[in-house]
Amino acid sequence: MLSKYTIVGMIIGCIITGLGIYGLIDSLSNPLVTYEKTVDIGSFKNFDFDAMENFHEILNVTGSSFHVKIETPDDGLQVDEDFKIFKQFDWFSLKDGVNRINITNTGDSEAKIYGKFQAVANPLVFPFHMLLIISGIIIIGVSAGFTIRKPRGF
Fold first, then answer.
1. 103: containing domain
2. Are 50 and 91 within one domain?
3. Are 66 and 114 contained in the same domain?
4. Distance between CA atoms of 101 and 33, rounded to whole angstroms?
5. What's this model's pTM, rounded to 2 decimal places?
6. Tens digit of each residue's pLDDT (9 = 90 or more) over 76-127
7. CB 3.0 to 4.6 Å from 51: which of 9, 34, 55, 85, for a disulfide?
8. Could you tell me the pLDDT band of residue 18, with boundaries at 50, 70 and 90?
């Protein structure tokens, strides 16, 4: 017969392991990053991401008036202009490197940013998911030990 601590520990261990496996599969299979932000009047948003050659990037900005500065590696898309109402940027990375985007709201209403970027994943994502999986397995193992011998104090 399994004790209540064993059952609870196994459920928690399975949940943690399942989250780790789901996150690992998702991070390996989906390099697409969706970016949705709102820029208040007079403020700005900066973001940058690593992209490989031939990665497809899309950026839409909507607002009464805004300044967009985009820097891509090598001779790729280089933008440093003011725009009104709506502007869409659609480009392919010509070289591996960091894409930098700065959007400043110069209008009298909020500016909305929407982007879909193919980005290189952070190298710490894989070890993080592996740590979750291993932690869940350890919790399951320790919980299974409760059925063999009940430790003092429990």
1. 32-120
2. yes
3. yes
4. 14
5. 0.62
6. 788 888 888 898 888 888 888 888 889 888 888 888 888 888 777 777 888 8
7. 55
8. very high
